[in-house]
Design a protein that fits this description.
mainly beta; 11 strands; 9% helix; 27% strand
Length: 173
């Protein structure tokens, strides 16, 4: 959607053109995923998720992706989460500023890891074989959600505050 791309370009001050990873054509399964090698060493990446309900949300990582696995890597205050398409829940696309640079950062998982692909702030993406377990939270101490419940991925939280979603497509550019 042209307006959504323009919104991301305005928020990031970057041109959204080069696709680094597209789950429709690139492998993101355990052991054979090309996800890590496509993003390691790059910075100023937009991770855009479209789920099976048509929600579009994600994470902008301003800092460079380093090859370090299973630990939280700090980000900077230019990184943020966003929701571009909320199926009418939000009045307009929204940007959620980072508050906690470490826990609002990212966590990259090894290619051989069974389930997890990457954690981006309050978004946990699973590999293709386990994608139904992808999850989001909304921790107000990590990002400013402006007091809006279900602002990020639009699911109802379970008793642990977890909201599960199924990615239909993941784009990184």
């Amino acid at each position: 959607n042209y307006h959504q791309i323009r919104q991301l370009e305005e928020w990031t001050s970057l041109k959204c053109s080069d696709i680094v990873f597209d789950s429709d054509v690139d492998d993101w399964s355990e052991n054979t995923s090309v996800f890590n090698e496509r993003i390691i060493g790059k910075k100023q990446l937009v991770f855009l998720i479209e789920d099976e309900d048509g929600e579009k949300f994600g994470y902008y990582l301003n800092t460079e992706v380093i090859e370090k696995y299973n630990d939280w890597i700090s980000s900077d205050n230019k990184s943020f989460e966003f929701n571009l398409q909320s199926n009418g829940r939000l009045q307009q696309p929204m940007k959620f500023e980072i508050k906690h640079l470490e826990k609002g950062g990212y966590r990259l998982y090894e290619k051989s890891w069974i389930g997890n692909l990457i954690a981006l702030g309050d978004i946990g993406l699973k590999k293709e074989n386990n994608k139904y377990g992808s999850i989001c939270w909304q921790f107000e101490d990590r990002f400013d959600y402006h007091g809006i419940e279900n602002a990020l991925c639009g699911k109802e939280p379970n008793d642990d505050g977890e909201m599960f979603f199924t990615p239909k497509r993941i784009l990184v550019n």
